[in-house]
Write a structure and sequence with these properties.
Layout: H1 2-11, E1 15-16, E2 22-23, E3 35-40, E4 45-50, H2 55-63, E5 69-76, E6 88-97, H3 101-116, E7 125-129, H4 130-138, H5 147-156, H6 161-166, H7 170-182, E8 191-198, E9 214-222, E10 225-232, H8 237-253, H9 263-272, E11 276-282, H10 283-290
Parallel strand pairs: 1-5, 7-8
Antiparallel strand pairs: 2-4, 3-4, 5-6, 6-11, 8-9, 9-10, 10-11
Length: 307
């Protein structure tokens, strides 16, 4: 799998890079839990963070003029363990300078086809907007939040715990209902790409130029398994800073661990991030699908319980 990926990008002159796994800052998204460690120096100590994604550092390289780049690396997320989760996992992340989101989606389809070649045939590629697929399976409009309608639907589907978990948080409602009622139906022996996610669900994607209620974000699914998350990347420094501040406020309200805003990323955006699209794909999950395995532990040499 790794050899096919590296050959794929070498043929397209996309540069392989490495960025730090240990950093002074971390992403602010409230739904992500992270690991911290203490860096001891003779006269002081610092808190450092294991990265949940190499995204911020890779964007600093893009702003410095790297051109299109990719990386295969470890990433870390706290509190994640189960059939599809291990706290330490492998990511493929790549950025294509000058690509729109549809162009990136075309390249994603080409890479997936190369990985599945000679193993098991996928029945084509399905591209569906978030609004269309959400309404198809729930009857609810994901772009207009109605607490009463969402609660009524949850009760009807015997998902009453959603009312307690999600309360008046639109993004949480969408995550909950999507994972329970929509995702299991996606990518039945095919690559399914869901695009145009609601604004409340996209921290790092641009707002769509034609519809301010959605962002230029895509997610990948095969056999109901989420494999990747991509964006037409946000380049507006002020907008990114505003989103960081809003997420930090949510973290404070929920008494979540403090996330340190990445000022170096903001400086890189201010210096000029080129127009680009990028995506991160979980390679352990992808290998699960390629190997027709039922658990991520089946494709890890050392899952966390045996690490």
């Amino acid at each position: 799998m790794l050899a096919v990926i590296r050959n794929f990008f070498a043929a397209r002159c996309v540069l392989e890079v490495e960025t730090p796994l240990l950093s002074h800052t971390i992403g602010t998204e409230p739904q992500l839990a992270f690991f911290t460690t203490t860096y001891l120096l003779p006269s002081r100590q610092h808190t450092l963070f294991l990265q949940t994604s190499p995204e911020f550092a890779m964007k600093r390289l893009l702003a410095a003029g790297s051109g299109s780049i990719y990386q295969i690396c470890k990433a870390f997320r706290n509190g994640e363990s189960g059939r599809f989760h291990n706290p330490e996992f492998t990511l493929l992340e790549w950025y294509r300078v000058g690509f729109t989101l549809p162009q990136l989606m075309d390249e994603i389809a080409e890479l997936i086809a190369a990985l599945f070649y000679g193993k098991q045939a996928l029945n084509g590629v399905q591209c569906i907007s978030y609004q269309d697929i959400f309404q198809r399976h729930t009857g609810l409009n994901p772009l207009e939040f109605s607490y009463q309608d969402y609660c009524a639907y949850a009760q009807q589907q015997q998902l009453s715990e959603a009312v307690v978990i999600c309360q008046h948080d639109h993004a949480l409602w969408l995550d909950f209902l999507f994972s329970h009622m929509v995702q299991p139906h996606l990518g039945a022996n095919a690559l399914c790409m869901i695009y145009d996610y609601p604004v409340c669900q996209s921290s790092l994607a641009r707002i769509n130029a034609h519809n301010p209620l959605v962002t230029d974000r895509v997610e990948l699914f095969i056999k109901g398994i989420e494999l990747g998350n991509g964006f037409y990347e946000l380049t507006d420094t002020e907008e990114q800073n505003r989103r960081f501040d809003a997420e930090i406020t949510v973290r404070q309200q929920k008494n979540l661990p403090v996330a340190v805003k990445d000022q170096r990323l903001l400086a890189a955006l201010d210096a000029g991030l080129p127009d680009c699209s990028g995506i991160a794909i979980g390679l352990d999950r992808l290998l699960m699908v390629l190997a027709d395995s039922s658990s991520i532990d089946d494709v890890l040499a050392f899952p966390v319980d045996n690490a």
